[in-house]
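Changelog note: in this version the structure field was regenerated for every chain. One regenerated record is shown below for reference.
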Amino acid sequence: MEITFSFEHDYELPSVASPQDIYVLSVPFGAGAIKWKESLEQKGIKFDATIHPQLPLIEFALKDLSPKVVDKLAAKFGENINDLDDLNIPKDLRIIPPADHSWATSRQDSGVGALAYNLFTEEVCQQLQDFQFDEIKVLGIKYNDFANENFASKQWKKRSVTLEVGVFELPESHPEFYRYNGTPILQIDGKNLGTFAPDSPKLPIGATFAATLQPDGSSVILKVNPESINLPEIPLPESEPKLDTAGQFRAIHRELWRKEMFDNLVGAIATTYEQRQANQSASNEIEQFKIGSHWTAYVQPSGDFIVRNEGKRTICRGNLQTCEEIFPLSEERASELEAMILERERLLHRKHELSNNRHHISSQDIELN
């Protein structure tokens, strides 16, 4: 397998709703892929890492590359190619990356984890009871408050510090606001250290613990003292609030109405998507179309869809084939959708009346002539 570098048109990024034109560096599974990941992070080059759907490769979609870096990569890897026919790769081959490649996003069908939890609930519960850990891997150090800190220095060596799991707060004007704002982040004295690695054990927001810090490339390994872990206390109500019969009825009615609005939205998106697909050849691209004047739907070939408003805030998310609600439509957004539907019906009715009036006037004119 060759390392390749090319400029891809309409490349689907896991972090962005619509396809983009972007440079892609493809690296075979193994130590080489991990070294490339660490090197890109050290150089501050932003990327999305995705598993190739047909080959054992990691595709690094590289963002904001300088012309100098583009020229270097193109000179070294630009002429390389991995030909599927020459490699004799079976079409039904399922690519499963090594365990230490879990930082890369898979394009394969999702939902296996949920199936495992549903089928093996008792086994999972038993594993959770036995679950203990003494290490946490932290990513994104170079982008936070300790970016210039040397954790290999004597000051940090074998020094135990208290960490807290806080909330990553970004201004709404920040370009990564909708991606990272509100996510858990590890903090020292209120300053942001970094986020949990995807394959690392995690603690809930508000938890505190003691650990020593050990640098590991562009990341940091926390050697946790398990006995120091202090989980946040969640206050429980002394008694369950009771709703009267009328209150229960209203709550059930609102939820049924909200779900009905979501189902209507799914039906409208599915119909539009099918019409788009019927008018063009089969495509693996994300379809994008407007809903009213303020919302936009993005639909993937798998049936997964997301609806966002003008500010790129997610309205809802689901799947056209299963009608599953992955990100629920809130009552407020359901009301907004209902208002859009009523406004459309009013405009269509008015257009119909105007059309009838024009036809009536035209008939009178003919009779008068």
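Spot check on this record: The chain has a mean pLDDT of 79. The chain has eight helices and 15 strands.
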